[in-house]
Amino acid sequence: MRYLLICLSVIAAAQTQPYTNDWRDNPQSAANVSFLLDAPAGKTGFLRAAGGHIVKPDGARQRLWGVNFTAASTLPAKEDAPIVADHLARFAINCVRFHFLDLRAPTGLIAAVDGSSRSLDPAQLDRLDFFIAELKKRGIYADLNLNVGRAFQRNDGVRDYEYLGFAKIINYFDDRVQELHREYAQQLLTHRNAYTGNEYRNEPAVALVELINENSIVEAWFSNRLLGLNTSKNPGTWGDLTASYEQQLTAKYHAWLAKKGLPPVPRLRKEQFAKASKEQFQREAEFYMELERIYFLNMSAYLKKELKVHVLIAGTSDHNHGNSGYPLLSSTSLLDVVDGHVYWQHPNYTRDPETGRTTGFEIKNTPMVNDPLHSTVVELSRSAVAGKPYIVSEVNHPFPNEFSAEGIPILAAYAAFQDWDGIFWYTFEHNQPNKWASFQQGHFDIQADPVKMAQIAAGAMLFLRGDVQPAKQKIPRAYTREQVYESIRGSYSARPFFDSGFSLEAVLHNATRITTLDAPVSGRLYPQLGKNSQIDWLTTNSTNGVVSIDTPKSQALIGFLSNNKAHATNLQADLETPHCAVMLSSLDGRPIPQSSKLLLATGSKVENTGMQWNAKRTSLTSWGAAPTRIEVVTGRIALTGLDHRTAVTVTPLASNGKPIAQPILATKTKEGWQFQIGATPTVWYVIEMK
Hints:
Blueprint: H1 2-13, E1 17-18, E2 48-50, E3 53-55, E4 64-70, H2 81-90, E5 95-99, H3 122-137, E6 141-147, H4 175-189, E7 206-212, H5 217-222, H6 243-259, H7 278-306, E8 312-318, H8 326-332, E9 337-343, E10 348-351, E11 358-362, H9 376-381, E12 390-396, H10 407-417, E13 422-429, H11 450-463, E14 474-480, H12 481-487, E15 511-519, E16 535-540, E17 543-550, E18 554-560, E19 571-575, E20 579-586, E21 597-603, E22 606-609, E23 612-613, E24 620-622, E25 625-630, E26 635-639, E27 648-652, E28 664-665, E29 667-669, E30 672-677, E31 684-689
Parallel strand pairs: 4-5, 4-13, 5-6, 6-7, 7-8, 8-9, 9-12, 12-13, 14-15
Antiparallel strand pairs: 1-25, 2-3, 10-11, 16-17, 17-18, 18-20, 19-26, 20-21, 21-31, 22-25, 23-24, 26-30, 27-28, 27-31, 29-30
Helix pairs in contact: 2-3, 4-7, 7-8, 10-11
């Protein structure tokens, strides 16, 4: 603890320098990694699922290295769309998840018709069409989310519409809401894009369609959101049911029991779980799981059989890792693609009960490198299912976490090692491009974060190029239906796997997949498998954590590198910056010793000008303003194993990849080619070797 406090105090005192992203200038610089894209997106046909992965028509793997565009950002003005597409391409982002499309215009697609949410706005659709066409040209796929934030209106025929917020949960048992979900899907997916000539159901540049976002009636049950106590017109994202929907759900439950020859019983509240009999608890769990399964199968069948949608379909994400996700996964894994969401230390918000607006937040603000067993890697790995592609459509180290530079390189490496099919960073932006600012306006937007953007370019080589190879061993996990039921009332301390026989550390060294959620007998005997030679995660008494990534074409050092002299095969770092990440990748696809050009991405904390923390450094007393500032990573880098080289030059880059200072001449020593970094404020360098 003393060491951690010292590190925190040093980080707090570190000087930062202005350094901002320029998204409008997208030159063909040395740091442009658009060569990893295969344009146009879908040029050989629709992506499909085969062998447990997303593949192209010829069977070749297609990994998705994506970002979310949320709310207003999904529909940029036509003069901005090509520039935005160019910007994404130069970081090798190959898929955009269109999130919250179902908001009212001018933010989303739904026409702002008085009293109705049942029609789409033609002008907004035209913006979407043009943007998707521009993305397609550059090799960037689309992921279309159907139901995320729709607010029903008085003429929609939805009971209690004013009290539903995003109307989660009721889609699983209310016929009218299900009908409206199908209607929206039909309107969007049969719409023809004038710029590509294809309806979205027949558009090979659409990689995925997601049915609903972070919505599970099982989760609502164990979160006490099926009580019928909501009387607020601002229930927030996770509001309870209104009394009438509670009564409808209870009636449906009693009818379900009657079909099984069982008498009606009250539905259980969370506080009653522990004392409930196995029969009563598991019976009610079965009811909710059946509702979920029927909903997903019916919606998927509607899209595929009636609308003739040709693209991959995902149900919703496993997203609450403090509780079991197995009941939900038993349904979503019946569709084409399995999905997961997680955040390292998502902010906890306080809200005004009258308006629903956020009034404050708290974060733990501690480093993930010191807590590997509760990392995003471990949490996300529980959801992958054998025989199904697995994507992570939302993940981030939210701002203002001071250790956020660790997030992208660690997860990029482990996603490749675990052999997942997609990672989507949440979120690129919420606003229209004309409102994109050169400072952090929210917890999740990465557009203005120069460290994360440079890491996305470097991470693309780890993940898309497959510099980190898939694990040689996969640990199979099989659960009985009873284990799935009982995991719902499992102890929080058993998170995230809720499997007493499974070692969380195994995920750091081996891949893992669920083989069945309906096994005849327990499958909790796990073999001791191999050691991970590509990624090494070391901590000393939960402090001083370091992750090293060591592959022929990409190497990285992440964590508390100050005075640590961490190293990989060709990369050594002796740095002054307490917590940071250093990523080195070959830009020409050859192993680092044979490469002529390398990308070096270095990052530590990012902050706004004038930003002020509270005394505990768990919240902000002042958010600050432009410009974005970076803690510049300083110290000595050594490139080893390059004895045959005659000259090594290191050029600091601006955010757009253009040189901003004279090249640094590395010095050849017995330890390798050495050079100092940090004299010029930057987050990345291009290294040229002769």
